[in-house]
């Protein structure tokens, strides 16, 4: 360093009058990268930067979203006071006024329309403590059966598929540290390079060590670029493709018969079914050549270890549960699970995509993955909560179905915490119209989202910087997110808001917590003995041990790094293989003369979900300022489109207008639109209301559409 540079840094250092460091975790994806916000004050002017902090999963790395996360948390548009809508205008009010209005409207509704008329819509971006508490709030505070959450649109198929096959659902069966040592990897409908960027070095190391990587995606992405073989299949054809892979594995006798015989049931039915399928037909259905299917099957089958990762590409389908189970059949038939460097990963999405699906936010679920219809489970939780089992409601309906219940006037009040369903749900025009019909809508958010704008009351929530609690990351590792940044204005933590409302509803005695840790202590008990057992985890341990992988039934247990080494979680200890024909249980959208193209949807690196947070961040928004449609130039020209001009996309459900972008690598029958934008750029206006019958997942990944140029 030169003298001049040294002087510059010394001067700068002297000017920094104050530096504060806040430990936290990224508010975005399931990697839950640990990080620090650094606040520097120079002559009363504050500046901020976020840096990574070492931990076992992300090892100190951050992606661009994490580095810029503080830009939305510190944004001037944060809601800082409770707001009540009067004559179509939001007016700031005190907390006590807002709470009194909520008490009155919810009790009035429940008196006239019944207890179940008030519903709760939660999120997997809140902490475990908050997700747990929201479930308790619905059942004990409001005594309603109607609670579900945004994870239904996200983890639904993976969770149901894994529960059916393995008897338990923890996204990753192994830690990320096994990835570099595996010999073959299948990435099915996952774009980790853009969606969980800090996981990439594990896959890059695997490649350096000689692993063969197969990607399955209708588009070329930053992820498919690391693959040795890219199967560019037709959207929605993954069941057929997985069946085709297994057919070849059986034909080439690449099976692990010992494993099949001792550890699984159902193989014979699966074998009969896939053997009866014609490879030629599978090639036609999937748009992947017979050669490529064979190549992929041989590569995976012949290696001694292998891992399969799935994400929303194969899961957000009307046959998403079946698709997951078909890929799990491949793992089981080749014995690539429950041993080193072999296993499954359903790559979770939201920060707490794993934990928030375990402790009672789902319509049919109680904490610790217990079932709300199981008498033993009901009485265990009723005891923990200090209520009578008979007072515990039964199961309600799934996320999207709640909007149908609103339309049918069965639900007339809704409490939404940390979600923007008008943008994220399928059939978005219908969802918006349904929310407008409510007698009372209360939204808890950091910003005036498109959903919050429809509310009668909006409550200001804290950001990740201000809200301590645990999050369970992509590996199933429970991590303690520290949070000491001061809350702006009259903002409150989500858990505190839940307690405050329960209290005005006369249920104070069940919600007396004064910290997140106190809630966690109750969650430990509530999960004890359940499939997702957190009993052995404490805040003290989390501080010392940098996260613990569940199940962890005892405080002396170190947690579970690899699942299924000896047995699966079904009563007989075996995994259940499952035969599915190539046809879905309900018909999927297909190309027709009127709607000749297949639309698929997803994400870009710089934006997060409905964009409410990332669009506030100048550094991220600048990378993608508006929605767009990726289309092959040959297809685009057939329909009279021009590059970078506006295109109208129409489906049976609705119409949107976005920018047209050429892609030489996307399938010619497919177009792609990300879902981070609202109103006329909201791609969910095009997605239909059909749901996977097993898990109630919408078919976000295939719609039939037509495209035309927008002429001014
Ligand atoms: N940058 C960024 N990162 C995120 C998020 C974000 O919004 N932005 N969201 C987080 C959340 S909540 C989630 S759930 C995850 C989602 O993570 P991913 O599931 O990886 O993301 P998607 O872009 O939805 O879809 C993945 C891929 O599936 C492909 N695909 C589409 N249709 C099909 C199909 O029919 N078959 C197959 N095989 N592939 C298909 C798409 O082309 C896409 O590349 O990411 C998390 N991380
Ligand atoms: N077409 C299409 N649609 C999809 C998908 C797709 O791939 N394609 N993916 C689906 C998936 S995987 C998901 S996960 C869903 C997500 O769907 P949403 O849950 O609707 O998405 P978010 O943008 O995360 O909405 C979170 C809202 O909560 C606010 N918020 C953020 N942090 C906090 C907090 O700590 N407390 C509170 N109270 N509020 C907070 C944000 O400002 C934002 O308004 O979308 C689904 N929709
Ligand atoms: S978005 Fe995901 S990968 Fe990026 S910094 Fe945040 S947690 Fe890490
Ligand atoms: Mo998600």
Strand order of the largest sheet: 5-4-18-17-16-6-7
* Distance from first to last alpha carbon: 58 Å
Number of domains: 4
**Number of separate strands:** 28
Quote the CATH topology of the largest domain: Rossmann fold
Largest sheet: 7 strands, mixed
Bound molecules: ligand MGD, iron/sulfur cluster, molybdenum atom
In one word, what is the shape?
globular
Low-confidence stretches: none
Mean pLDDT: 97
> Which percent band covers the strand fraction?
15-25%
Name given to the CATH architecture of the largest domain: 3-Layer(aba) Sandwich
The DSSP helix count reads: 24
Gyration radius from CA atoms, angstroms: 25 Å
User: What is the helix fraction of residues, given as a range?
Assistant: 25-40%
CATH class categorisation of the largest domain: Alpha Beta
Would you tell me the structural class of the helices and strands? alpha/beta
Domain 4Fe-4S Mo/W bis-MGD-type: 19-77
Protein name: Nitrate reductase
Cofactor: Mo-bis(molybdopterin guanine dinucleotide)
Pfam family, one: Molybdopterin
Describe the fold and architecture.
With 712 residues, the protein is of the alpha/beta class. The protein has 24 helices and 28 strands. The strands form seven sheets. Strands 5-4-18-17-16-6-7 form a seven-stranded mixed beta sheet, sandwiched between helices. Strands 24-26-25-28-23-27 form a six-stranded mixed beta sheet. Strand 1 (16-25) and strand 2 (34-42) form a beta hairpin. Helix 5 (128-141) crosses helix 21 (516-527). Iron/sulfur cluster binds next to helix 2. One ligand MGD is lined by residues 29, 154, 188-191, 194-196, 216-219, 221, 233, 235-236, 238, 311-314, 349-350, 600, 602-603, 605, 607-609, 672, 701.
